[in-house]
Design goal:
It is built from 14 helices and 12 strands. By secondary structure, the protein is an alpha/beta fold. It folds into 2 domains: about 140 residues, Rossmann fold; about 140 residues, Response regulator (Rossmann fold). Strand 3, helix 5 and strand 4 form a beta-alpha-beta unit. It is elongated.
């Protein structure tokens, strides 16, 4: 007769031994993380986030599966539904259109947003910034005065400036545009606001701007317009007009000025939020935050090529000067 206690002990020992032989990936839960972005968004944005996730220990195929979806604004709700049906544990949404689409589809799947255009309270996405309360948290630049700050810098750099070509992505929230119009009146600037629905529109927009004798180009916040930056900078250089963008990749590639949030820091903080939620924290308990670090960069090489002199007071305020 088999001794029942001895038999159970043997089975338990064998089970422990088998578990010890499993790889770490087999012993850990594999989570599925989705992302929702605009198709025109540059790939390096997603690469930055994935790099930060790797630093936190998330290795594709071992303990995480990334389900990356991108599309045009009309396609985003269907893509969100695909992610929900794929049973993702969380969705990262970059920019206002993906955030709106995801929140329109699900109020249960956790969402981490990186949105530099939307007011999350006014949009009904969160109860308060300190305690959002629902399924969304993240990082928002809900500051209408940000556009005013960009215009102020542009005017101080180019004191004789009167006409500005403003490139605007119509899929974005309109609050930054409203703030820009208010600031334009205070600075006695005449903005020529042009909606850019496709990159093919840019040559004709710059031709029209030349006839209006604009003195500078301001590129409003938009992942899509960041993706168009090289053509924008080239067309502006051909027209001998300075460009101001939001991120440092504008100035590193030839724009005169850039002022905006430090994107590396934002993606690092976003990855930390994703990690916290995957480990059990509710998104509604994580406060919605704003960018903390802003970069102001001046490209002096571009200034010399355009025959411009940058005031010393502006150079002294720059975080970086490209010479």
């Amino acid at each position: 007769m088999i001794n029942r206690r001895a038999f159970l002990g043997f089975v338990g020992a064998v089970g422990i031994q088998m578990l010890s032989r499993q790889s770490p990936a087999q012993q850990r839960k594999v989570v599925r993380v989705g992302s929702l972005t605009l198709s025109a968004q540059p790939k390096f944005f997603t690469d930055l986030w994935l790099a930060e996730m790797r630093k936190l220990g998330y290795i594709e195929g071992e303990n995480v599966l990334f389900d990356l979806r991108d599309g045009t604004p009309p396609r985003l709700p269907a893509l969100t539904l695909e992610l929900v049906h794929a049973d993702v544990d969380l969705i990262l949404c970059v920019s206002s259109a993906p955030v709106r689409a995801a929140m329109g589809v699900t109020r249960t799947v956790p969402i981490v947003a990186l949105d530099l255009e939307t007011d999350p309270i006014a949009s009904g996405f969160a109860a308060t910034l300190a305690r959002p309360g629902g399924n969304l948290t993240g990082f928002f630049l809900d500051l209408p005065e940000f556009s005013a700050k960009q215009l102020e810098i542009l005017k101080e750099t180019l004191p004789s400036l009167t006409r500005v070509l403003v490139l605007w992505d119509p899929s974005m929230e309109r609050a930054p545009l409203t703030g820009l119009k208010t600031a334009s009146r205070a600075l006695r600037l005449r903005p020529s606001i042009r909606e850019v629905e496709d990159e093919s529109m840019l040559p004709s927009i710059f031709e029209e701007a030349a006839t209006k004798k604009v003195g500078a180009v301001l590129v409003m916040q938009s992942p899509t317009l960041v993706g168009y930056r090289r053509q924008i900078i080239k067309l502006a250089a051909d027209s001998r007009v300075p460009v101001m963008g939001m991120f440092t990749n504008f100035t590193s590639e030839g724009a005169l000025l850039s002022y905006g949030p430090n994107i590396d820091e934002l993606y690092r903080r976003t990855a930390v939020y994703v990690d916290k939620i995957l480990k059990g924290t509710k998104p509604g308990d994580l406060p919605i935050q704003r960018p903390e670090k802003f970069d102001f960069v001046i490209n002096v090489r571009t200034a010399r090529a355009l025959g411009l002199t940058i005031p010393r007071s502006i150079l002294a305020r720059a975080d970086e000067v490209i010479r």
